[in-house]
Amino acid sequence: MRDQSETSSGGAEIDELARDIEETRARIAGEIEALEERLSPAHAREVVVETIAETKDRVADTLVGTVEAMSDAIGDAASIVRHRAARASIDLVATVRANPLPLVLIGVGTGWLLWDLWRARDRALDARALDAGR
If DSSP codes are grouped into helix, strand and coil, which group holds residue 1? Predict the structure, then answer.
């Protein structure tokens, strides 16, 4: 026959195994419930909605950053254009002061052209007046 210590130690091992089995069942049941929750349509919808919201925010942030970068680039380009235009006007004034004769000739040529156009118009008006008077 078995002695008392062997029987009580065997019973303790069985009780410990039963507790381990029950703990494992409870843990597995909890994990199954968690999986069921994660695989539910409501959870999937929630994940999709969150993903869309996060994506929308990222796109908005990217657009804002892009617009700000473009605005900075446009501001820089405008500054460069202003600087170059100011420099060109300074260079033009300096060139005219150094060489006034070309500007004088351009003025004379423009005046001559306008005077010729004026005379041609007057001749046309005079011709019409003569034709009307006949």
Answer: coil
